[in-house]
Amino acid sequence: MRNYIHVISLLVVNAKVQDHISAFVLLNLVVNMLRVLAKLHICKLTRESHGYHHCCCSLLCCFRTVSSLTDPVERIPFEKLETIDYHSIKFHQLRQILQECTSAGDLLSGMSVHTHLVKLNINGSIMIWNKLLSLYLKFGDIHYAHQLFDTMPQRDVVTFNTIISASVRDDYDAFELLHLFSKMKKEDVKPNHITFSALIGACNGLIALRLREVFHAHTVHCGLSSNAFVGSSLVDGYAKQMRLEDAIRAFGEIIELDLVSWNILIDGCVRNNCKEHAVRMFLQMLKGNVRFDGFTLTSIIKTCSKPGDLKHGMQLHGCAIKLDLAHETPIHNSLITMYSKCEKGMESPLKIFGSISEPNIISWTAMISGFVQNEQSEEAHGFYKEMLRSGVRENDFSLSSILPVYGNLAKLDQGKQIHARVIKSWFGLDLSVNNALIDMYSKCGSLEDAHLVFMKMEKHDVVSCTTMIMSYGQHGKGKEALEILSEMESEGLVPDGVTFLGCLYACSHGGLVEEGVRVFKTMTEVHKLNPKQEHFACVVDMLGRAGRLNEAESFIDEMGIESDVLVWEALLGACRLHGEMELGEKSAQKIMELRPEGHGPYILLANIYAERGSWEDKEVLREKLVSHGLKKQLGCSWVPLERMPC
Question: How far apart are CA 7 and CA 3, in angstroms?
Fold first, then answer.
């Protein structure tokens, strides 16, 4: 064994490698040879003849490979490498060897072939170099693949497509991909549909969105925009960018539409909340005699999201059964979501979930979300525990779905336990999970914890800031909410209608009337957002809480929202707070006209009468409430009790 180690040392000392890749090969081979020697020694001690013979063969192969790294050839200890004429090299044999190495996952042998190519200075047969590039990429060695790409004697479209596709999978920056594309154009290599499909699919970053338009222009120039691969990439990219009209135009340019193209467009319509157009595309696909698959149904079922869509959703469920697609787990998952949103209760989703042979994390998450949407928080909590018992690990979506349960139940301790699981599972960096944590802590009354989660986040989005603003508003901290709005705008985030609603709510509960009026003007005049009835109601409530009841009434008249029941309810609540009988009667009368089935105005106005000592008016109003068949709904509250000993 000492003799073998001595020979290895001589090989390493005398090897003259000409590049870093050959040096890397030599190092790996030496390590492998030492491992084989250890096995060889063990086999010799245990007298295992078969293992001993196998180790000897492996060692001999390693020596031969190392010998290809040495120069001159006289230093090869076991056999001499005959001088090979460049034109006599059988390229197809090398290609076959590399193909076998790639298929068998033998990186070491492939690197040995690479060493031969480098040493013999073989510049011909670009197919060999492309196969070698594919070998490195199969093992995920993107760094050495790029180094090989840079040193290749020549490159063709396959070479560029291979390295571009690998760079896309490895999340390379879009501008680095643009550099590869520019290099491709400089070398006069003509891109094809595979090139553009990969490049267009990589334009997902905010800065790189314009690059999609650049590549789109190149596809038109090259006459490839009508290709199904390129067109589908454009449709998917524009749909993700929420540019549905551009996606539809790109779809219209495709000459030969296939199922994949239709699926991408339908899914894009659903993603852009254009459900009617998604249904039209689905019907148009059927008229074109294109047979849909499970992915198509999964996307189109998502268009059923409210009680009025139940009939349509049941028809799609029937299609899945008829075409023997109902057994697919993704379709089961979409059906669970559909019935949870369109049907009252969770009876149908429970039946569908029970029919899934192997429910995945999406199945469990869909059930938990369904329970939350149907205000069955206790059942959602129990289902979550059952999921953990079955060995299914949470992901970011499931954690975001279960956290609102503990906010609804005001179970702070259990919410903190989920937070601990978030930290252990490394999902603490996920935006949606952090947003759910902020909301949970706020609803449980722990504003400090909500603020701590917000401050520890690496980055914020509109939802993060809006959730924090709503949290401050719920606790009457209007100034802090407005500070978040200022920070949000300084970070380049654009507030939406929900954000401004949270600010108005915070100003209303914090007594910041003037600031709230400025927020409303900023929303309408600067950001050009159209106020909804909730915004108007917040402004009326804000003015009413401050005792400026006449201004609140004037605001209703100026905005032309006399037919909005929410603003009159807000004004009636303010009249109840300040004991204003005349305006309260007017507000209550408006509410009774707009919403005759509601009992609220009767109760509030009766309380105003009671506080002013108008007991006869209160009794008349109570009798009127009963005569209309209305009844005050009973309220409820709860407090957590420690478990009592048996």
Answer: 6
Most trustworthy range by pLDDT among 110-124, 127-141, 527-541: 527-541
Residue 362 neighbours by CB under 8 Å, 6+ apart: 329, 330, 333, 397
b/e sequence 458-489, b meaning 16+ C-beta within 10 Å? eebbebbbbbbbbbbbbbebbebbbebbeebe
The contacts of residue 474 (CB under 8 Å, 6+ apart) are 442, 443, 509
Crossing angle for the helix pair 447-456 and 431-443, nearest 10 degrees? 160
DSSP assignment of 561-612, as one string?
-TT-HHHHHHHHHHHHHHT-HHHHHHHHHHHHHH-TT--HHHHHHHHHHHHT
Mean pLDDT value across residues 436-447: 93
Closest CA to 290 of 236, 334, 254: 254
d(CA 20, CA 114): 12
C-alpha separations of 129 from 65, 84, 107, 108, 144 in Å: 19, 19, 15, 16, 13
* Alpha-carbon gap, residue 297 to 37, rounded angstroms: 59
Tell me the three state secondary structure of residue 218. Answer: helix
pLDDT of residue 541: 92
User: Which residue stretches of 272-429 are H helix?
Assistant: 275-287, 294-301, 310-322, 329-342, 347-354, 361-373, 377-389, 396-408, 412-424
d(CA 469, CA 602): 33
Can you give the pLDDT at residue 30? 53
Copy the structure tokens of residue 122: 């073989």
Of the two residues 125 and 218, the one the predictor is more confident about is 218
3-state secondary structure 32-47: HHHHHHHHHHHHHHHC
Q: What value does the mean pLDDT take over residues 370-375?
A: 93
602 vs 257, higher pLDDT: 257
Single pTM value for the model? 0.73
- For 333, the token pair is 């998952």
**Mean pLDDT value of segment 444-459:** 92
Q: Is 78 helix (H, G, I), strand (E, B) or coil?
A: coil
The distance in angstroms from the start CA to the end CA of the chain is: 74
Beta strands per DSSP E along 184-280 = none
pLDDT per residue as tens digits for the range 624-633? 777 766 666 6
